[in-house]
Amino acid sequence: MEVQWAELIKGTERPIGIGITGAMRCTIRASGTVIGAVLKRGPREEIVAEAFCAILLRSWGLNVPDSYLLEVDGELAFASADSGYPNLSQRIGLSLIPEGTPEYDAIVKQACFMICNLPSAPLAAVADEAIENFDRNFGNVLWDGTTEAWIDHAMSLGNGRSKMPDANKLCLMAAHVGESENFSRSALAAWMLLDRSRPGSAGSEIKSIADLDEPIKDVCSKLSTMGNRLLARFPTAHDLLKQ
Questions:
Q1: DSSP string for residues in 46-86
Q2: With contact defined as beta carbons under 8 Å apart, do 47 and 78 qualify?
Q3: 178 or 85: whose pLDDT is higher?
Q4: How far is it, in rounded angstroms, from Cα 143 to Cα 111?
Q5: How far, in Å, CA of 28 to CA of 20, rounded?
Q6: Considering its fold, how many domains does the chain have in total?
Q7: Dihedral sign computed on CA atoms, order 91, 97, 98, 103
Q8: Is residue 101 domain-shared with residue 188, that is, in the same domain?
Q9: For residue 162, what is the domain's CATH number?
Q10: Shared-domain flag, residues 162 and 218
C-alpha cells in the first residue's frame, strides 16, 4: 500500500478550525480524481513520518485514511482524504466543557473508556509503541459512532522526543479506566500477529523522498522487545501501592 502523489487545487485551502498544527481542508487531484482532503505542511521529517506511518499502519490492518504526498510552494506536504466524520474529542464535545471541572474529568474518563474499547485500539497501541508516537490523543482518533480511523503521526519516528513526554497514551488511558489487564492482553496478542517485514516494505514505498534505514531499524528493534515494552507501560502492583 503506497502513498500516492497528488496536486493541490490552489485556492481551496481553508482552516480546519481545530488542532495546533495548522492543518487545512482543501481539494486535491490524484490520478485525475478530485478529492476532499486535509493538508499538512511542516518540517520535511514530519511529512516523511506521516507518509511512512500511514503506509505502515495500514499494512498492519489499522484504518488510516488514504494518504497523499504533494509539492506545495516548492516544499513536500502531506494530505489525507477527508473522512467526513469527527474526531473523538469533537464527537463527545470535550472542548465545550471547562477543564478542571468534575464534568470535564467525567467526560475524559468516559472518552478513555470509549477509545480503549475500540476494536483496533490494542493494535494501535502496539503500532504507537513501535513508531514512537507519544502524541495519541482524542483529537487524532476519528470516530463516526461505528468506525474508527487513526491519524496524525507527524510526531513519530523520534520527532516528538524533545517536545512531549515519553508515553504510550493508549496504555495510559486503559490504566486510567481500570482496563489495563484486558487491554495489555489484547495488545500482546496483536503484537504476536504482526508481520515484522512491513516496516521495510513501507520504507521502500517512499525511498524516493527519504532514506529511512535507521528509523526502520529502530522500529524493528522495538518490535523484537515489544512484549516487555508494552507491559512496562502499565502500572504494576508496586506502582499502585506507591500512589
A1: HHHHHHHHHHHHHHTT-----EEEEEETTEEEEEEE--SS-
A2: yes
A3: 178
A4: 11
A5: 22
A6: 2
A7: negative
A8: yes
A9: 1.10.1070
A10: yes
Q: Which amino acid belongs to residue 9?
A: I
Tell me the pLDDT band of 145, cut-offs 50, 70 and 90.
Answer: confident
What residue type is assigned to position 73 of the chain?
D
Q: State the CATH number of the domain containing residue 68.
A: 3.30.200.120
The answer to whether 51 and 69 are in contact (CB under 8 A) is yes
Residues 103 and 68 in one domain: no
Range of the domain at 200: 88-242
3-class DSSP assignment, residue 90 = helix
Q: Tens digits of per-residue pLDDT, 73-86?
A: 999 999 999 988 88
Cβ–Cβ under 8 Å, residues 39 and 77: yes
**Which residues have a Cβ under 8 Å from the Cβ of 90 and sit 6 or more positions away?**
18, 139
* Residue 93 and residue 213 in one domain: yes
Residue the block writes with cell 510552494: 73
- 49 close to 153: Cβ distance less than 8 angstroms: yes
pTM score: 0.92
Question: pLDDT per residue over 10-40, tens digit each?
Answer: 999 998 865 555 689 999 999 999 999 999 9
